[in-house]
Amino acid sequence: MKFREMDTEDIEAALETSMQEGLREDEARKRQQKQGFNELQEGEKQSALLLFFAQFKDFMVLVLLAATLISGLLGEYIDSIAIMAIILINGFLGFFQERKAEKSLDALKEMAAPQVHALRDEKWAKIPSREVVVGDVLKFTSGDRIGADLRIMESSSLEIEESALTGESVPAVKFAHPVQHDVDGIGDEQNMAFMGTMVTRGSGIGIVTATGMDTAMGKIADMLQSAEAMATPLQRRLEQLGKILIITALLLTLLVVVIGVIQGNDLYTMFLAGVSLAVAAIPEGLPAIVTVALSLGVQRMIKQKSIVRKLPAVETLGCASVICSDKTGTMTQNKMTVTHLWSGGKTWNVTGTGYVPSGSFMSDNTDVNPKQEKSLHQLLTFGMLCNNSELVDHEGQYVLDGDPTEGALLVAAMKAGLTREVLKQKFTIVKEFPFDSTRKMMSVVAKDENGKQFVVTKGAPDVLISQCETILWHGQSQSMNRDLKKAVQDAIDGLADQALRTIAVGFKPIGAATVLLDEREAEKGLTFIGMHGMIDPPRPEVHNAVKECREAGIKTVMITGDHVSTAKAIAKQLGILRGKDKVLEGKTLSDMSVGELEEVVEDVSVFARVSPEHKLKIVKALQNKGHVVAMTGDGVNDAPAIKAADIGISMGITGTDVAKEASSLILLDDNFATIKSAIKEGRNIYENIRKFIRYLLASNVGEILVMFFAMIMALPLPLVPIQILWVNLVTDGLPAMALGLDKPEGDVMKRGPRSPKEGVFARGLGWKIISRGFLIGISTLIAFIVVYKTNPDNLQYAQTVAFATLVLAQLIHVFDCRSEKSIFSRNPFGNQYLVWAVISSLALMLVVLYYPPLQTIFHTVAIQPRDWLLIVGMASIPTFLLAGSFLVSKSK
Ligand code: ATP
């Protein structure tokens, strides 16, 4: 028999599980060992060996290998072995860099892996989706991605979007009862839910019938190619730039070789020098270092509680000019406590904080017994009845399981002595119409001991009031006339002005046999019972974060479903709503076109009583105004706006799977301040990449120019091939990596956001590369000429001096690269990685210069102490000449 045809007992028996208790942990572990992990098998990964060999497939490296082979055959053993060794070490370095980047991205994937709500040992717990086994009982709700194939056992207004399997984008309505008739494909299996599909409405509970490759999704898994890693805009630009640089470097190298040969150098030496120069001048390591810098940055971001799901977002973060953020939970703590209650013109205060269910009720500063105040009692009872949250006593601490808004209502009711157990004995919930942020209401149909049925609705007061025909006033039901409506409106404003979040409760009796089909039918003709007002304190760190963002040229916009006055009050406290800033309401927004919104959008800093659908309009209007928009969201309906935003941000704790999958950044702590940290890190990563691009390219320009000018001036080669390769490996490699780990400059959050259109060489980077590179080349050449002219017989000595000057000039210049301004604008030794990289490069240089066996290999001779003065002097020029001009201009 098929699962869809079976009833609950049969399924429980067949899968040896229980809807009440779930699986036992040890049983689940046993099954997991037998069934394997609940995951789809991925395609073969590139093996380590292949990745290693991939390092040598670069065209120039192959030419170099061929050249070395020839020189080996010609008897130049030492040269060819040394060059081989250098190529090999270079290959290893590239290999390790790529592995590291790959590993950290894998770890990232794991952190963002989905979780499910499973019943194990009679308790609901969140477990990683891959640990689910057949027989597990899973709970799911709107926004969740289904973790395995399930037979649905309980459902409430459940709709699931199955387009991944059926291609049908309209969500399928699901239910829990057995289906006896034949079905035609997955789309018809209405009491089954399938792995990878998305719950778009309602909620349900199901028993897992298949996992991993046995699921419907597993059967088509071969067709689902794993998505390719996305290159960031900068990586793409660098790839194009790389091509231009290769051609330029090759042309210059060719010129150097041709001139060299014309000048009388022998063809073989010039060929090897040319190839070495080309290898050194082409920044083949650049893309790898960029990837490493990005992935290390991404790891730092994890420590600061944000997960980057899409690598390009790291760069876009630095361009963000507006952050549109939800209020509840992101700017506030989402720890709600009811402090005020209102019914029929009377107000009560409630004491107590947090979720501890003890406190007293007061009216006009005198204690009251809530059981004796009929309307108050009714308000609290209904607040508890239309409510799915639970308060769990966890080792003496009260922990809320469920929505904090509902938790607040529950705790308020408990303070009045009401309990879930007693309520359950008196009332049965027949049906539920779940809350959604567009409707801003939730309802239940309840039945009392006498079989009488009634609807309880709770929701945003200004929305609920329009569904009420009558109101409970001084214990009597009265028609909702204009005066009473006005009294309610005033009461709503009164609570909201105090920054309180408000929830109203309505009620309506229905016939004992009435079956309500949809929420529209349930939520009309109600009686207004009263309101709860609850505090939700702002997160203490948000005020400063908003300020820092403002200083960084980033505007913060609050988007909330809450009442205008509540939103205004909190936005003022947080420094978001200032001066002439405007507040726009969802109602007004609905009537506006994107074009109309564009006219005003830059002046608005609070959007209140909005629905998730409005967010897309806001993103579009801001983008049309040229802004780079970061937008947060947590629900299913937020996904389109999250996708459309330049940086889509989802909530790690309260976010649904759908929102997370649409986003490029996940906030692990749901905190607004984390967005600010991520932006700061994003800016820093980009600046660091600029730093080593500048360092590497300036070094390459220097290397090429010293050879080029020497050839033009009919001088012998200032550097031998192996020295050029050494510079490429040691002097360029380590410090560039260290620059990638640099800390941000102090003013990184004091400047405006970067333009997304900005090129690689923007903000003077191109000039810095050319000017510093030119000076490095010239000073190396001068050092070479001075020594060579004094003693033309000892070419090797002059070459050694040129080598030392080039290395030193680069190692000094690297400190200048730490700042966009000048070497003097920050402590040059503030980056300890860089200090160590430079010290080790220096030490290695000294070994090459003074250790006899290496002298043979590197064609060096020991440098006399007096010549060091010349070397240090010449090597300082490129950095200090231009930095000096900075100091002069600053002092003016
Ligand atoms: P944001 O997170 O975007 O800042 P929000 O979470 O406050 O906004 P919603 O959750 O859409 O926005 O809530 C909008 C309004 O709906 C609230 O002001 C409240 O009156 C009402 N509301 C919130 N949660 C519930 C619920 N569980 N049941 C009934 N009504 C609710």
TrEMBL record:
The chain crosses the membrane at residues 48-71, 77-96, 244-262, 268-296, 692-714, 720-741, 769-788, 794-812, 833-852, 868-888. Keywords: ATP-binding, Cell membrane, Hydrolase, Ion transport, Magnesium, Membrane, Nucleotide-binding, Phosphoprotein, Translocase, Transmembrane, Transmembrane helix, Transport. One of its GO terms (molecular function) is ATP hydrolysis activity. The keyword Transcription regulation does not apply. GO terms for cellular component: plasma membrane. It is found in: Cell membrane. This is Calcium-translocating P-type ATPase, SERCA-type. It is an enzyme of class 3 (hydrolase). It comes from the Bacteria. The keyword S-adenosyl-L-methionine does not apply. Gene3D superfamilies: Calcium-transporting ATPase, cytoplasmic domain N, Calcium-transporting ATPase, cytoplasmic transduction domain A, Calcium-transporting ATPase, transmembrane domain, HAD superfamily/HAD-like. It is a multi-pass membrane protein. It catalyses: Ca(2+)(in) + ATP + H2O = Ca(2+)(out) + ADP + phosphate + H(+). InterPro entries: ATPase_P-typ_cation-transptr_C (IPR006068), ATPase_P-typ_cation-transptr_N (IPR004014), ATPase_P-typ_cyto_dom_N (IPR023299), ATPase_P-typ_P_site (IPR018303), ATPase_P-typ_TM_dom_sf (IPR023298), ATPase_P-typ_transduc_dom_A_sf (IPR008250), ATPase_P-type_domA (IPR059000), Cation_transp_ATPase_P-type (IPR050510). Its EC number is 3.6.3.8. Residues 2-76 form the Cation-transporting P-type ATPase N-terminal domain. Its main location: membrane. Belongs to the cation transport ATPase (P-type) (TC 3.A.3) family. Type IIA subfamily.
